[in-house]
Amino acid sequence: MKQHLQETTDFLRSEGFEKPEIGIVLGTGLGQLIQEIEIEKEVSYADIPHFPQATVEFHSGRLIYGTLSGKKVIVMSGRFHLYEGYSQWEVTYGIRTMHQLGIQTLLISNAAGAINLSYKKGDLMVIDDHLNLQGGSPLAFANVGEYGERFADMLEPYSKKINGLLKSIAKENDINLQEGIYAGVFGPQLETRAEYRMLQILEVDAVGMSTVPEVIVAKHLNLPCAAVSVLTDECDPKNLAPVDIEDIIRVAGEAEPKMILLFKELIKKI
Ligand code: HPA
User: Ranges for the Nucleoside phosphorylase domain (predicted)?
Assistant: First the structure.
């Protein structure tokens, strides 16, 4: 495993992915940030040794390197989900790669459903904490001790400092930024009425199918991390509507300029 990571990072360094400061993972429907980057290098996942391959067709599956708000960034355009059949190791391989390349901060975005019904479709939510409901851990492997503590603590998986910056940037720019708990589920099926009710009882604010393994690995690697959800649908068990993935992507796209502004301003300040 270590050997693979080494070969992956050696390859990317040879391609010019030098001294990145910040890693960014872009969620479903949230690819426009790339247009703001002065791109220096771009590699398709298919061409990176040992990198998992993207399967969901609306993810382009590229690793991008360049400058954003004056800092060197690496962007994962296309992430790996458990629901696509990837292992926990594969789902978090990009995080380990970016860490090994030297990033000092990880920023994550995702699309999520609003469980807290005072939050509305199109709102952004900074994640304050999470529930891992995915039935597994990216740290559950024999030689995890070679990468960090086996019993990693999860005291502050989401950096309070970065979240504070995000909240002040939102305030300065009149962005209504919610804050809350994200539940990571396995997917790919959406939740049943009973599951949405359960999530309400658990006092979750949003639900999605990603992010949790990435954040667990970041915490394990002592990599400061923040994550912002775009709330793309309202999950009211009393008024359950059929899922409309096109609508989820459309709402994510409409909310995206707010996310881009938040990330660009944040990067200036970290
Ligand atoms: N459930 C799970 N994942 C999601 C949802 C949802 O309602 N909306 C966007 N991603």
Answer: 22-268
